[in-house]
Design goal:
Bound molecules: fe (ii) ion
CATH topology: Ribonucleotide Reductase, subunit A
Shape: globular
Number of strands: 4
CATH superfamily: Ribonucleotide Reductase, subunit A
Helix content: 55-70%
Largest sheet: 2 strands, parallel
Number of helices: 14
Distance between the termini: 41 Å
Radius of gyration: 20 Å
CATH class: Mainly Alpha
Order of helices and strands: HEHHHHHHEHHHHHEHHE
CATH architecture: Orthogonal Bundle
Number of domains: 1
Structural class: mainly alpha
């Protein structure tokens, strides 16, 4: 077992340790104020809400998360082409994807159990259903390499972060939409270059990300039904969550450059494409967007990544010097984040109709 900063995943114990581990950029588990969530009113968007609930009920992905006959062969041939380092990055990708899927599953289930509001309760039942399928499907792929995650244990032992309901809406909306943008960008790339599809799981991404897209729609409707969440000082929170989510994704993705390279993607280009898609989608709900194509914004993200690399080195070094270096890195990261936060944003008008089609 290896729990040092540069963690490799060799055994099921490593994989489970990695999933439970919490740091700045690893996916987290959340809990919230259920009583406040109970008071949510979605009447202002009732017509769009009911249409969405009918889609959930129709469950068009009911049979999607089943492996087909070709799956096992594709795993064998695809994995044989990967270097040991690349294989590590892919395992890391599977573990962190599973942790985020399962994080959604746990949160939605907790909300479902603890609220009485019939609209929210019903929504959470569907969301938890979808996320549990997603997590289960990734776990099957980890089990192929004897790296299965014990989800019951993960639920019991991982640390939970408390978020007020409004933070849950901003953060969850964004992570669902970013999840969509990430999966569809990978799917489109491998559709064009099937020779680069080194694992069959990517064939599932297109219909899979439609689930994520719809999950995001639910939170967009909740926020549009409660427009005070999108005004005044709350705009500062929206800005904060946009930056926190984008920056985390950027740093995490740049830690596994080989994974994108194997798919014929450059990590930075991939991330900026994901940001552009996400920004386009957020016009349904957020009154502002980050100017992610601005050179100063890009320099800021590069700097955050460089600082996180220095932080990893300092952790490995250990001792008093290592600790001091970690402190310096933390201050630098804070200042860089603050500078990015203060950059001018793009104001945007909200679309009259909330719902959008996953058209990318
Ligand atoms: Fe999901
Ligand atoms: Fe989702």
């Amino acid at each position: 077992m290896n729990v040092s900063a540069v963690q490799t995943i060799e055994t099921a114990e490593d994989a489970n340790q990695k999933a439970v581990h919490s740091d700045m950029i690893s996916p987290r588990f959340y809990t919230t104020d259920f009583a406040a969530m109970d008071r949510i009113n979605i009447e202002p968007v009732r017509a769009e809400w009911d249409r969405m609930m009918a889609e959930y009920e129709g469950d068009n992905n009911h049979d999607h998360f089943q492996r087909d006959a070709a799956f096992a062969d594709e795993v064998a041939t695809g994995m044989a082409t990967l270097s040991p380092e690349m294989r590590q990055e892919f395992m890391d990708f599977l573990v962190s994807s599973l942790t985020s899927e399962f994080s959604g599953c746990v949160l939605y289930n907790e909300i479902r159990k603890n609220v009485n509001n019939p609209d929210i309760k019903k929504l959470m039942t569907y969301l938890a259903r979808d996320e549990s399928r997603h997590a289960g499907f990734i776990n099957l792929s980890l089990r192929d390499f004897n790296l299965g995650i014990d989800l019951g244990n993960l639920k019991r032992t991982k640390k939970y972060t408390f978020f007020k309901p409004k933070y849950i809406y901003y953060a969850t909306y964004l992570s669902e939409k970013i999840g969509y943008a990430r999966y569809i960008t990978i799917f489109r790339q491998l559709e064009k270059h099937p020779e680069k599809r080194f694992h069959p799981i990517f064939r599932w991404f297109e219909l899979w990300c439609n689930d994520e897209f719809r999950h995001g729609e639910s939170f967009a409707l909740i926020m549009r039904a409660n427009p005070q969440l999108l005004r005044g000082a709350n705009k500062l929170w929206i800005r904060f969550f946009l930056l926190a989510v984008y920056a985390t994704m950027y740093v995490r993705d740049h830690m596994r450059p080989m994974l994108h390279d194997a798919m014929g993607l450059d990590s930075s280009e991939y991330d900026y494409q994901v940001f552009r898609i996400t920004t386009e989608i957020t016009k349904q709900v957020f009154p502002l967007a980050l100017d992610t194509d601005h050179p100063a914004f890009r320099r800021g993200l590069e700097r955050l990544f460089a600082i996180s690399q220095a932080m990893e080195k300092a952790k490995v070094r250990g001792g008093l010097m290592g600790k001091a270096q970690q402190g310096v890195c933390a201050v630098q990261a804070f200042l860089t984040f603050a500078r990015l936060y203060c950059m001018p944003v793009i104001e945007q008008d909200l679309s009259p109709q909330v719902r959008m089609e996953p058209a990318w």
